[in-house]
Specification:
80% of the residues lie in helices and 0% in strands.
Length: 418
């Protein structure tokens, strides 16, 4: 049966990007918190969770498959069903005596499916909407992506604290959380079966595709004008955030005696919810700001919005306030500015890096480079905190703004009037 809803972006854009944001945050933030609750050290938890970002970094290797075999809708729905099953298996395997290796392997497979889901969902967005409608829905896109972290890193983490107060067993707590996540992804997959727009099946299936045709998706990317500067921009724009992403939850959870803020899971989840809500508001403002001023005049300001508020973390590490309201104000304020600035990153890759015959693949190159940055910086962040302590680490984060600002200043534009 065909539904008339399939041509309504207001239905499938929010659900598509919500699923992307939810899976991403479960893998790169919530998994680290779970590992810590289950007894891993901060360094181990950060390092393991960072590895799940590697699948997002190799999106360019996965994108040609989506561009040349089956339809994008097929991959969106298929990966969401796979992720649902994977989360269910994580819930079951947490009770195993050697759970760590099995759960990490499952989450690694889920991360690959999540990466393919992102490529396919972005492909649907890029190919179902023209440039005007892409710009129109960019705020909704960012807003919807941000709801995923509110549910995953906010509500689910906060609920884990409530469950632990009742059950007193972190294994049982996280089994319940992952069972709920499995159900959510299954419902999203069913919804997308009904509402995602029809997508053409690839004209050149893999079986009959000359090797040079598949290679063209890669070679044409590196033939783009000023591609080296575009690559540098895609990688370094979120350099400081790559260092922060894994560490901020640990900083909030670590006791005062270890330089942290001494919060439990319930408080952490509440602040995460406030933070990602602020991120959403910032994303909306960022989209409006770009629409009003244009991308090129806005980009440096947006990069400053990503980096300057990081000084809040240095101040928190120095004064270590015990007032919840103060922490719950300062951290969401930083997330607001990050949301505003992150919009510039995504719009640049969508409008300057992606255009061409292989839009899905080339956009995946950009998001893959971003993922490579977050993976590499996240992997190093736990070691740096252990070596330097929180105060010195946050000084390093501020210095990491320099390459972000330089690549933004030098970012090339195909159309000088954007």
């Amino acid at each position: 049966m065909k539904f008339r809803f399939t041509n309504q972006p207001l239905l499938w854009v929010p659900s598509s990007f919500f699923a992307m944001g939810l899976v991403n945050q479960i893998l790169v933030v919530v998994a680290a918190i779970m590992f810590r609750n289950l007894g891993m050290s901060y360094t181990e938890a950060a390092a393991y969770a960072s590895q799940f970002y590697l699948a997002y970094a190799i999106q360019p290797l996965l994108a040609p498959l989506v561009d040349t075999f089956k339809s994008r809708k097929f991959y969106v729905i298929g990966t969401q069903i796979f992720i649902s099953l994977g989360f269910g298996l994580v819930a079951l395997c947490l009770q195993l005596p050697v759970y760590a290796a099995v759960v990490i392997a499952l989450l690694w497979l889920i991360s690959i499916a999540g990466s393919i889901q992102d490529v396919a969902s972005n492909g649907v967005y890029l190919n179902a909407l023209d440039n005007t409608r892409q710009a129109k829905f960019i705020g909704l896109q960012s807003l919807s992506w941000g709801i995923g972290p509110i549910v995953g890193a906010g509500l689910m983490v906060s609920y884990s604290g409530t469950l632990y107060a009742s059950l007193g067993d972190w294994v049982a707590v996280w089994q319940i959380i992952f069972a709920l996540l499995s159900l959510i992804l299954l419902l999203v997959a069913v919804f997308h079966h009904l509402v995602l727009p029809p997508d053409r099946v690839a004209v050149h299936p893999i079986a009959g595709l000359p090797e040079r045709k598949l290679a063209t998706a890669f070679t044409t990317f590196f033939k783009k004008e000023a591609i080296a500067k575009m690559i540098a921009f895609a990688f370094f724009y979120r350099f400081s955030q790559g260092l922060l992403e894994k560490i901020i939850p640990f900083f909030m959870m670590d006791p005062i005696s270890k330089g942290g803020l001494g919060l439990d899971n319930t408080a952490l989840g509440k602040i995460n919810s406030l933070g990602f809500s602020a991120f959403l508001l910032g994303s909306i403002l960022g989209g409006w700001y770009i629409a009003k001023r244009g991308l090129k005049p806005s980009l440096l300001t947006l990069c400053l919005a990503v980096n300057i508020p990081n000084i809040f973390y240095l101040l928190l590490s120095i004064y270590q306030p015990d007032e919840f309201w103060l922490i719950a104000t300062v951290i969401p304020l930083e997330k607001f500015f990050f949301g505003m600035g992150a919009t510039g990153h995504m719009v640049y890759m969508m409008q300057q890096l992606a255009p061409g015959a292989f839009r899905t693949t080339h956009y995946a190159f950009g998001t893959g480079l971003m993922g490579l940055c977050l993976w590499s910086m996240g992997s190093a962040s736990g070691f740096l905190v252990e070596m330097l302590g929180y105060r010195s680490f946050f000084v390093v984060v501020l210095v990491a703004a320099i390459p972000s600002l330089l690549v933004t200043w030098w970012a090339p534009f195909r159309d000088e009037n954007v």
